[in-house]
Amino acid sequence: MEPPPVPAAAAASPERLFDSHRLPSDGPLPVLLALLLYAPVGLCLLLVRLFVGLHVFLVSCALPDGAPRRFLVRAMCSVLGLFVWQSRPRRVRARVLVANHVTPFDHNVLGLLASCSAPVLNGAAGFLCWSRGFLEVAGAESRAELLESLKGYCLQGGNPPLLLFPEEETTNGRVGLLRFSSWPFSIVDAVQPLALQVWRPFVAVSVAGASWFTELLWTFFVPFTVYQVRWLPSVYREAEETQEEFALRVQELLALELGVVSTCLTAADKAEHLKRLRHHPPASRPPPPSSQPSGSRPQISRSMPSTENVHLIGLAQRVREVLPQVPMSAIRKDLAQTNCVDTTIANLLEGRVPFVPEAETEGFVAAAPSFYGAQDPTTSRIAPASGKLFARSAEARQLSLQERKQALWDYARRRYTEKYGIAHAEGSC
């Protein structure tokens, strides 16, 4: 049974998927006090672990890939505060491993459990890419060339399996998964999912917009970081199943295993969220409105048009075309929480979003006469009384409300389907 759309859409808010603060500034006082007392110890651990981390890097480069190397490096990583646990370990049979993305070091941690290679998808190649444990492949600038290179890599039997992160960006791992890209599922017809959960005390696991070097310093500063990995059975692509459907099915399996929701957000939504954070940091509050002289004109901010969410405006316009009597302010306010056209329409029709209806247009009144009680579109302005009459009994009033609500819902569904089509309406989130 599919989960209800409203909770999933509510969890799709970028503010819940990405942490914008490293320290718990609004946390309980004992936690902040403990972090303050721990700071001198954390700085000492940071210096020691930087020295030990250099030796771990040298050992990783000197020893060949194999079980002895993974065991030794895993033991040395425990000195760095990285503890890796796995449950239900399975023999790797698929040529592609897919996992959710939480930290910039997920590929290094998963490499301690099984031999795998994570290709570099963005960023500069060269020594820095190799030292971080990425695999350089040809054609990384073009998606088509990259797919051909990865398919050729998988055809060679001696190469270790590929490790891919279909989310393409990191999240906090607590709320939901980003929408999986379909291209990793076009390489082979069988993938093995890995469910990854990360926990550490005091501070956030990852912060949106932070560099990998900053994350490394915080990893060495905190007492420990626990990585919990759960191996899932291999998932095979069914007959006549598209790449998008295959990716969505694997995403739902991982979300169910992690106890989170599958969202409609993508890596582009995270980039847009980071832009909003740079212009409007969460910690800063807008100044109170200052009293201006009566003769002065209010100053208009020039940065507002550049920071307007174009995607949100498009969604709001689609909702407004279906429900023209709803104010645009109420539509945008609900879309900022749901980011889904269907869910916002349902919230408006069910009365979960309070608003004052605007003057209905002639086309809307004529197209939905049953909602206003008129049987003829030509008399819709003259005879709206049957839908507005106040019945004597409570049962009759409730029945009239339900009939009008159902009529409006049917009209909105029909109008939305006629404009965008059934297939587009189903995938509008």
From TrEMBL:
<feature type="compositionally biased region" description="Low complexity">
    <location>
        <begin position="292"/>
        <end position="303"/>
    </location>
</feature>
<dbReference type="InterPro" id="IPR048056">
    <property type="entry name" value="AUP1_CUE"/>
</dbReference>
<protein>
    <recommendedName>
        <fullName>Lipid droplet-regulating VLDL assembly factor AUP1</fullName>
    </recommendedName>
</protein>
<dbReference type="GO" id="GO:0061724">
    <property type="term" value="P:lipophagy"/>
</dbReference>
<dbReference type="GO" id="GO:1990044">
    <property type="term" value="P:protein localization to lipid droplet"/>
</dbReference>
<comment type="similarity">
    <text>Belongs to the AUP1 family.</text>
</comment>
<dbReference type="GO" id="GO:0030970">
    <property type="term" value="P:retrograde protein transport, ER to cytosol"/>
</dbReference>
<keyword id="KW-0472">Membrane</keyword>
<dbReference type="GO" id="GO:0031625">
    <property type="term" value="F:ubiquitin protein ligase binding"/>
</dbReference>
<keyword id="KW-0812">Transmembrane</keyword>
<feature type="transmembrane region" description="Helical">
    <location>
        <begin position="31"/>
        <end position="59"/>
    </location>
</feature>
<dbReference type="GO" id="GO:0005811">
    <property type="term" value="C:lipid droplet"/>
</dbReference>
<feature type="transmembrane region" description="Helical">
    <location>
        <begin position="71"/>
        <end position="87"/>
    </location>
</feature>
<dbReference type="GO" id="GO:0140042">
    <property type="term" value="P:lipid droplet formation"/>
</dbReference>
<keyword id="KW-0551">Lipid droplet</keyword>
<feature type="region of interest" description="Disordered">
    <location>
        <begin position="278"/>
        <end position="303"/>
    </location>
</feature>
<keyword id="KW-0256">Endoplasmic reticulum</keyword>
<dbReference type="GO" id="GO:0009615">
    <property type="term" value="P:response to virus"/>
</dbReference>
<dbReference type="GO" id="GO:0005776">
    <property type="term" value="C:autophagosome"/>
</dbReference>
<dbReference type="GO" id="GO:0043130">
    <property type="term" value="F:ubiquitin binding"/>
</dbReference>
<feature type="domain" description="CUE">
    <location>
        <begin position="311"/>
        <end position="353"/>
    </location>
</feature>
<dbReference type="InterPro" id="IPR003892">
    <property type="entry name" value="CUE"/>
</dbReference>
<keyword id="KW-1133">Transmembrane helix</keyword>
<dbReference type="GO" id="GO:0031624">
    <property type="term" value="F:ubiquitin conjugating enzyme binding"/>
</dbReference>
<dbReference type="GO" id="GO:0005789">
    <property type="term" value="C:endoplasmic reticulum membrane"/>
</dbReference>
<dbReference type="Pfam" id="PF02845">
    <property type="entry name" value="CUE"/>
</dbReference>
